[in-house]
Write a structure and sequence with these properties.
alpha/beta; Nucleotidyltransferase, domain 5; Hexokinase, domain 1; 6-stranded mixed β-sheet; 5-stranded mixed β-sheet; 14 strands
Length: 331
């Protein structure tokens, strides 16, 4: 028996699996609110309260935070996680902590074909090699899957906080606008995230590049999630400022995705995770993302050879954690 989890600031998803011929088979799964609990161990105790007779061999947890030397102080919770302490608590041989995007990246290797959408249809199979993983959601996550010739190893990064590098006059103006609001540092996350999407809208409308309709302006005054409002009206094609916002968003998303692919020489492909891409699929597929992804001059040929896929399954972090735990068992 193995245990896996996806530990976030809002909710904690835990699952028990049986191993059959090296593959994981779900035995039990439950969701708990993260806040209101003092520790992950407290939630684990509740989850396992009726499973007194099972023996957990290994475990793996995807955690929203940086994992350093087997320990993690969670970003949005007052928890401190420790691999050895969790292993002792579970009486398991080994427990591994992965950054949540590391877990999601590994999980994408196990998604069914129907849980992925190809964005680069002319290139379905890349050269065996590293894979880049990018995920815009509440923030911008970036990770890599390194290929050792036999298997993939997930590796975390904080690449979403790297400096935004504008490449057009409009992007230079966007950078200057962002610099006024974030004078210490303008990162890609200030653009490629839920709040970042609304930053783009504000830039376009406050500088007079675009003018929103009265309907959009009214909704922004009365609805709690401005980025969702802008996205909805762009998808409905009822507001030109909203359409321009998403077009600029996906273009920059493509450019940063190609930056990541170049840095890890991601010939094995690019996976796009996170909550935003599946919600704005028509814009991800309208060509502007790929145009941004391909815009690497002399490296155009390389970028065109890289498969690009959007992951649709929100449980990718749990899938990754469970399969990584299975790998620990076999090693």
């Amino acid at each position: 028996m193995i245990i896996a989890g996806d530990i976030g600031g809002t909710k904690t998803v835990l699952a028990l699996y049986e191993l059959e011929s090296g593959k994981v088979k779900l035995f039990k799964q439950a969701v708990f609110p993260s806040k209101g609990h003092n520790s992950l161990e407290e939630i684990l105790e509740k989850f396992l309260s009726n499973e007194k007779n099972i023996q957990i061999e290994t475990g793996c947890f995807g955690v929203a935070g940086a994992v350093l030397a087997g320990k993690c102080k969670t970003t949005n919770l007052p928890w401190e996680l420790d691999e050895q302490k969790l292993a002792d608590f579970l009486k398991a041989k080994k427990v591994k902590l992965l950054n949540d995007l590391e877990a999601a990246a590994y999980g994408m290797l196990f998604l069914n074909p129907g849980e992925k959408i190809q964005l680069n249809p002319d290139c379905k199979n890349g050269v065996p090699g590293n894979i880049a993983v990018i995920a815009a959601g509440t923030g911008l996550g970036e990770a890599m899957l390194f290929w050792d010739g036999k298997q993939y190893h997930p590796s975390a990064s904080e690449g979403g906080h790297c400096d935004f590098a504008p490449t057009t006059n409009l992007e230079i103006d966007l950078f200057q606008w962002l610099k006024q609001h974030y004078p210490d540092h303008v990162s890609y996350e200030r653009i490629l995230s839920g709040p970042g999407l609304f930053n783009i809208f504000r830039f376009l409308t406050e500088t007079g590049v675009e003018k929103p309709t009265e309907a959009l302006t009214l909704r922004l005054k009365t609805e709690p999630d401005p980025s969702a409002v802008v996205s909805q009206m762009a998808l409905a094609n009822t507001d030109p400022a909203a359409v321009a916002t998403l077009n600029l968003f996906v273009s920059i998303y493509g450019k940063e995705s190609s930056n990541l692919s170049l840095k890890c020489l991601g010939t094995g492909g690019l996976f796009i995770g996170g909550g935003i891409a599946p919600k704005i699929l028509p814009f991800m597929k309208n060509g502007k993302f790929l145009e941004g992804f391909f815009s690497k001059g002399r490296f155009l040929g390389l970028m065109q050879s890289i498969p690009v896929q959007i992951a649709l399954n929100p449980e990718a972090p749990l899938i990754g954690a469970s399969n990584y735990a299975a790998r620990l068992t076999s090693n």
